[in-house]
Amino acid sequence: MRRAYSVETVRAAEAALMKRVPEGALMQRAAAGLAAACGDLLRRTGRVYGSRVLLLVGSGDNGGDALYAGARLARRGAGVRALLLSPGRAHAGGVAALLAAGGQVADGPDDIGGALDLVVDGITGIGGRGGLRDDAVALLRAVLRDRDRTPVVAVDLPSGVEADSGEVHGEAVRADATVTFGTYKPGLLIDPAAEHAGALRLVDIGLGPELPEPPDLEALQYADVAALLPVPGAGSDKYSRGVVGVVAGSERYPGAAVLAVAGALRGGAGAVRYVGPGADAVIARFPETLVHAGPPSKAGRVQAWVLGPGLGDGRWAEEAAADVLAADVPVLVDADGLRLLEPDTVRTRTAATVLTPHAGEAAALLGVAREEVEAGRLAAVRELAARYRATVLLKGSTTLVAEARDTPVRVNPTGTGWLATAGSGDVLSGLTGSLLAAGLAPRDAASVGAYLHGLAARHGSDGGPLSAQDVADALPAAWRDVRAG
Question: Residues in domain YjeF C-terminal (predicted)?
């Protein structure tokens, strides 16, 4: 599992560790890991010896890390130059080490020369706020002009992004890879900042024992998801596997009902009960579905409900939503169902509620502009979870899962842009509902659902366009992948 901590927590952990190790040891550990990562990247396109490396060096510790790493590369035969943004404030020991190893300090962008094999971004550190300053932007543009294919490695995190929130205010470095130290930072895992980070590499500098529990963010990996998957045993029946009820679809949007049911069935539900106007379309596609004319409370035993995809907003939809929300089982609310919610109704439910909005729906629930949600996804998902006292799965370029109580926000690592297709969210709703019905805790059901959903999209697309039904059909392959490790 990838775990991420706030800047405040990281700095406290570093301070505690520095009391137990020799002075400068942490910077040397970071520099060693950074130099190794840069060396690996250089070897992919050529070799370290004879390569041309440029260090962009700010006044903080990230600049020192870059300088010491540059010294190590210079000793291996690379031609290393450092461009100091604030020459009088650059890390003196790092500058001396670079010069002693045969590196050079450039007088300015015009002193760089021709082609470069690597640029190392050590401009700002984890404390940077508000994007890059104008002088840094001008320098970066001058360096990368006519060198747009030169790979960029960021030190700890790309300069200009917000480490704690994943927000990007103004211009920021777009790295091909980021080498981070001690632990992941939230901004490396959350868009829009995560889009600037490229491939991530974590360097162990001994910080682990100093980091508290729980982390601020976590991202599940294969083994974590495999441990949570509800796998039937020899004595399982449809009720022990989970029966999920689906209230979705309308005369206008019968396909939403079909896709939500598909997600539930492909997600491992023992049975699916469907209530709504799309019964004929559902039965035509999935004859094993148990259909009922309604109300939902009369449909039969279920262990969780999925409410909302394609439901519309008419009288029947309002009555069905009220009926479902009165049930004493977990309820997942998506799409049109979100517009029918009253915060007090959700807050007073005795069973769990999972909300699955995209950015536009989240903005409507919060009463803010969509752009505000997209720019501050972490703040938005936390605010929604607290306001509704629910588990919230915020869909988007990085899907986030938050609870009202003090648990780490989860970040899904399997998303793909191909999921931005009509009906994909309906499949996710049915899938997550099936996991709720199987007994997974709300945060686990939402996290595993998002993980499998993204993995299925990768299977279904094969690198190209896909439909929502393709995603549903690829869910069994995603299950097999996770179980196989």
Answer: 221-482
